């Protein structure tokens, strides 16, 4: 049985995960890709519990990117059905554990039944005081940045905002993540070393943890390895090592 990390003083408040490798895991087991996605749900459940044990306040999961819409229709339809089914099956336990559901992304692209499931889950858990579980669904960081830029441009054009008043803080407030802090730790599974259009603005000072483990094999023990790696790093934010000691 894996143990939670004892060094809680340097635990990240916000962990974001690029969940990758479901398809390859399925291929390795002689199954179709949807079987891999179904198996990946077990890892979501286990990682959420591990995050709670580590007293992490925010967990963000890259669930479905805008680029994923280009996958075969059968897989996309299966993923949408899996998403709605999982929400329905898990929502009561999530609520009992004080998990607050949040979502980011261009959800207008989702089928109505999936969008309604998401909105309903967020509303049902909105007063919960535990970990904030953010699902990045139909999400693209470039889309998010462009939408924020358009909002600011409209305010400038209307005269409600001066260009010289545009700051990093103002820009951040226009993003879909305005209500949550930037992630301190980004985890990517399956041996890939890409950001894949995920939280490009927000990860300016994030630490990265890459693992060859495919997402359905990513357990509580694997999650704790990532947290332990983070805890052993020196975060300087542009300063020298001696300045932060």
Fold and architecture overview:
The longest helix is centred in the middle third of the chain and has 24 residues. Helix 1 packs across helix 2 and helix 2 packs parallel to helix 3. The relative contact order is 0.19. It contains 7 helices and 6 strands; from the N terminus they run E-H-H-E-H-E-H-E-H-H-E-E-H. The protein is of the alpha/beta class and 245 residues long. It has a single domain, classed as Decaprenyl diphosphate synthase-like (Undecaprenyl pyrophosphate synthetase), CATH 3.40.1180.10. The protein is 41% helix and 14% strand. The mean pLDDT is 93. The protein is globular. The chain has a 6-stranded parallel sheet with strand order 3-4-2-1-5-6, with helices on both faces.
Task: Please outline the major beta sheet.
Answer: 6 strands, parallel
Query: Low-confidence parts, pLDDT < 50 over ≥5 residues?
Result: none
| Total helical elements | 7
Could you report the average pLDDT, rounded to the nearest whole number? 93
Radius of gyration: 19 Å
Give the CA-CA distance, first to last residue.
35 Å
Helix content: 40-55%
The helix-strand sequence is EHHEHEHEHHEEH
- Gross geometry: globular
CATH class: Alpha Beta
In the sheet with the most strands, the strands line up as 3-4-2-1-5-6
CATH topology: Undecaprenyl pyrophosphate synthetase
Please render the helix and strand layout as text.
Elements: E1 14-18, H1 22-28, H2 33-53, E2 58-65, H3 73-96, E3 100-104, H4 112-124, E4 132-139, H5 141-158, H6 168-173, E5 185-188, E6 207-210, H7 220-231
Parallel strand pairs: 1-2, 1-5, 2-4, 3-4, 5-6
């Amino acid at each position: 049985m894996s143990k939670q990390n004892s060094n809680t003083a340097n635990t990240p408040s916000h962990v974001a995960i690029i969940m990758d490798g479901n398809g390859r895991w399925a291929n390795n087991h002689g199954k179709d890709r949807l079987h891999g996605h179904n198996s990946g749900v077990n890892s979501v459940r286990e990682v959420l519990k591990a995050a709670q044990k580590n007293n992490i306040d925010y967990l963000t999961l890259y669930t479905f990117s805008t680029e994923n819409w280009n996958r075969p229709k059968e897989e996309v339809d299966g993923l949408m059905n899996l998403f709605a089914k999982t929400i329905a099956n898990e929502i009561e336990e999530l609520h009992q554990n004080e998990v607050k559901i949040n979502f980011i992304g261009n959800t207008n692209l989702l089928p109505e039944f999936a969008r309604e499931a998401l909105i309903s889950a967020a509303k049902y858990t909105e007063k919960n005081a535990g970990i904030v579980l953010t699902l990045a669904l139909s999400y693209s960081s470039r889309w998010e940045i462009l939408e924020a830029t358009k909002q600011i441009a409209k305010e400038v054009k209307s005269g409600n905002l001066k260009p010289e008043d545009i700051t990093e803080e103002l820009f951040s407030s226009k993003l879909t993540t305005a209500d949550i802090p930037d992630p301190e730790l980004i985890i990517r599974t399956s041996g890939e070393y890409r950001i894949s259009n995920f939280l490009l603005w927000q990860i300016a000072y994030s630490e990265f943890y890459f693992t060859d483990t495919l997402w359905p094999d990513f357990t509580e023990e694997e999650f704790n390895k990532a947290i332990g790696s983070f805890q052993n790093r020196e975060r300087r934010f542009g300063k020298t090592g001696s300045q932060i000691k």
